Amino acid sequence: MITIEEMAVVDANAAALGVPRKQLMESSGRAVARVVREHAEPDDDVVIVAGRGNNGGDSFVATRFLDAYDPTVLLLGRAKTISTEISWENWVALNRGEYDIREARDSRDLDLGTPDLIVDGILGTGVRGAPREPAHTAIERINESDGTVVSVDVPSGMDANSGTVASVAVDADHTVTFHDMKPGLESPEQSVTVADIGIPAMADTLVERGDLLRLGRAPNSHKGDNGTVLVIGGGPYTGAPALTAQAALAAGADIVRVACPTAVAETVQSFNEGLITTPLTGDRLDSDHVTSLLEAAAEVDVAVLGPGLGAHDESLAAAQSFISSFDGTCVVDADPLGVVPDAADTDASLVCTPHAGEFRRMGGDPSDSWRDRMDDVRTLATDLGVTVLLKGRYDVIADGSTGRTRVNRSGTPEMTVGGTGDVLAGIVGAFASVLDPIHAAAIGAYINGRAGERASNERASISPLDLIENVPVVLDA
Ligand SMILES: NC(=O)C1=CN([C@@H]2O[C@H](COP(=O)(O)OP(=O)(O)OC[C@H]3O[C@@H](n4cnc5c(N)ncnc54)[C@H](OP(=O)(O)O)[C@@H]3O)[C@@H](O)[C@H]2O)[C@@H](O)CC1
Ligand SMILES: Nc1ncnc2c1ncn2[C@@H]1O[C@H](COP(=O)(O)OP(=O)(O)O)[C@@H](O)[C@H]1O
Ligand SMILES: [K+]
């Protein structure tokens, strides 16, 4: 089962993997034609009713596979308003091939005749609101006809996520949907074929630029408004929480606060005047701080616990007690990862970002190959009921509640330098304020790796600050 939004991600990831949408459209159209042939008699009169988007494009392709029926194509609207390039190219092919094609300029041009079979390629997943004219009338004419109706992807006028109909929808006899079942198509009255259109399985698994669509913007557009983040860290190390906090800002968080021991607050502040620090008395985190930290964390969208916190027993006990009592979203990195198994009964939604050594401390056993790591990470995530991002050459990310597992390939060997993990935690924190944990972790790893690639193109070695500098750049790329 796949939603329209998820389908758009997978489709864009397939393109990133070298399978462009026009190729998918060819497979979609061919799959539609196959179902048409199953339901048509040799001399049947076949009419194809097409809209101006890619749903229409699929039906233009289908037309070329239905030559035996000498089909008629009725385009709803003027050809020059066809809204996508690949659909236009397939329309041009019908023109050049001397197919029987017609443009219905308005609802008066909508005589369908008495076809035995109608292909409905008017509106697919791109429908917005109630069908306008001439689509509205065309849908009514199709429903009045006695012919068998085969719908492309979704019955036109129906929302494929919810099955709801804004005003009218095609009453399809058969629907040919693509790649995976859509939630709204599940009803006993419908016969649905799910066609494999050649989207590689890895378009689901690998994190690619299509995943950026989840940020609620086109992959090429600008950063939107994100949420608020509280970084809890520092003590023995001052650089780490400052890097995490700056990375969260770079990834688009609106406000980033840092709760750190008094002894390091001034140093953290000096890194970036945009950071707001909340000093904790003393020189390391201890149990006396937990109550005030829980109050501060309740005020933000996401807490990031761990950068530079150190491994003192008192600090780890405080971290465990914080995790146990917290009920929001918390990214856990570095030393506190070891206490996660003892705090796994928490109501908090945890996103854990271990490297291989920390993964072992959490009770996992990472294999050498990333394919095997997919099982290892899924197992630990499921056992603990958390999201896990295991860092490495290929990062492996799994969601403990659904078992969904992703792999990120971006990054460069130069990123083994210290501090890149702190940057990653901040990026994931910023994204976790606007996305589900699995998506925040996956896109965080992807963006961190892309920033590293870009930084290492410019210099022989890279620092964590180079990464941070490149985060907004790769987000806009
Ligand atoms: N995703 C995938 O991976 C794959 C998707 N594929 C296929 O692409 C389809 C989605 O294509 P899509 O995005 O071009 O949208 P689509 O459904 O043709 O509608 C857009 C057109 O309809 C119009 N329009 C909108 N609302 C309207 C209204 N209320 N009343 C009237 N008109 C309305 C809108 O016009 P506009 O509003 O822009 O003027 C525009 O012209 C999908 O269903 C599947 O078939 C496959 O090829 C392979 C893989
Ligand atoms: N050899 C590598 N190739 C690609 N990316 C890497 C490599 N080593 C580390 N990274 C990336 O660097 C980031 C930090 O990972 P790591 O260095 O393991 O963290 P830490 O700083 O906690 O030790 C991760 O996003 C990871 O994907
Ligand atoms: K349709």
UniProtKB/TrEMBL annotation:
Binding site for (6S)-NADPHX: 54-58, 124-130, 153, 240, 308, 355, 422
YjeF C-terminal domain boundaries: 206-477
Cofactor(s), by name: Mg(2+); K(+)
Pfam families cross-referenced by the UniProt entry: Carb_kinase, YjeF_N
Entry note: cofactor: Binds 1 potassium ion per subunit.
Biological role: Catalyzes the dehydration of the S-form of NAD(P)HX at the expense of ADP, which is converted to AMP. Together with NAD(P)HX epimerase, which catalyzes the epimerization of the S- and R-forms, the enzyme allows the repair of both epimers of NAD(P)HX, a damaged form of NAD(P)H that is a result of enzymatic or heat-dependent hydration. Catalyzes the epimerization of the S- and R-forms of NAD(P)HX, a damaged form of NAD(P)H that is a result of enzymatic or heat-dependent hydration. This is a prerequisite for the S-specific NAD(P)H-hydrate dehydratase to allow the repair of both epimers of NAD(P)HX.
Protein name per Swiss-Prot or TrEMBL: Bifunctional NAD(P)H-hydrate repair enzyme
Naturally occurring in which organism (per UniProt): Halocatena pleomorpha
